[in-house]
What we know:
Blueprint: H1 3-15, H2 28-37, E1 41-47, E2 51-56, H3 59-68, E3 73-74, E4 77-83, E5 109-115, E6 121-125, H4 151-154, E7 173-177, E8 196-199, E9 207-208, E10 214-218, H5 221-226, E11 230-236, E12 241-246, E13 249-251, E14 256-267, E15 272-281, E16 295-298, E17 305-311, E18 314-322, E19 325-336, H6 340-343, E20 346-347, E21 351-352
Amino acid sequence: MSPASQLAGWTSISSLQGQINPRKFLTEQDLESLRILFPKAIGAQLLIAGFLRMLFDSIVDVERTHNLGYPGEVGGLVVLLDTATFNATAQNIESGAVVSDTEAKSVGCLGLTLKLPGGKTVLTTVTHAYVRNPALPVVLMRVAAWVIRAKNALYRFLNPHLDRDSRAYGVGMITNCFDNPSPILPFPVGYRHDLSLIEGETLPEVVSPHEYPIISAWAPYEKVLAGVPLYAVALNAQTQNWRVVEGAKVTPAVANSVLLGSEYVWDREASDQAVAMLWRSKDDVGSAGGYFGSVLCTSIPTDQHGEAVVFQNYETGLRMWESEGSSLLANIKAGFLLPGEIRLQVTCPPKLST
């Protein structure tokens, strides 16, 4: 490490000498200091348990950082080094795909119904479900000066050809995408929110499960970080029935969830970054793949109303080192923070299913 780099690094440490509160988001100054202190890092996890987990593209970068030396503690948090994992496993949907009411033809998750200014109603969905190969082996590649945009492909969702299944129906068209996904670079390159909006004349009904809280508002992030009861629930697009997701299982019980902290993923060349919340459900050793777009909510089952927090966009893992190597201890769910204009919109309280 050059003297200039060492000076920059120690300056960054001094700027982080104050205690970092893991129940608050990192500031822009915090993130810039971490990028200087860990120049090879592509992200960080701020864990409520008191850890700062720095994320790298490869084990080579982890070893290089370890060999050069790094502070064992930053802002009162224990520093860990690890490779990044971004598992976006929602099933890929070709442009023009249809949603079927048959169990075998799963096409991903719808989220909430929103009412926009002027009374227009839209459905939320995850962008990555409509991008070809978003979950290639995940090495966060640097975005080149030229970026091929995939938005135009996303705007062709409706397929008039329903002859393969007489019970299939068109859901609508994606009319607004809050990401710039690349057709050649892997997730999460180009994603800030992993959110798209679907419009249509006959949008499917989003129905709350019987005796569960009705989602009718957005929860303040500060309230969630401070600590409140959480659960996750998803709409089964095939049957239009709600499924509550509990780790790897699909059960009628509430998926009690626990907030773990926040995650920050950046691309230095593109001067871009994304922020997500991290949580786990009761049974977190398995993947809840196929339920991306499910809603993390505040509430307990006896409440009449709940508040939406974020949508599940991907899974990551917490690594446990063992004598014979390493293994992933748990699958952790992650959801990007939402655009401010979306959180200003009114959520339409769903009808209760019986």
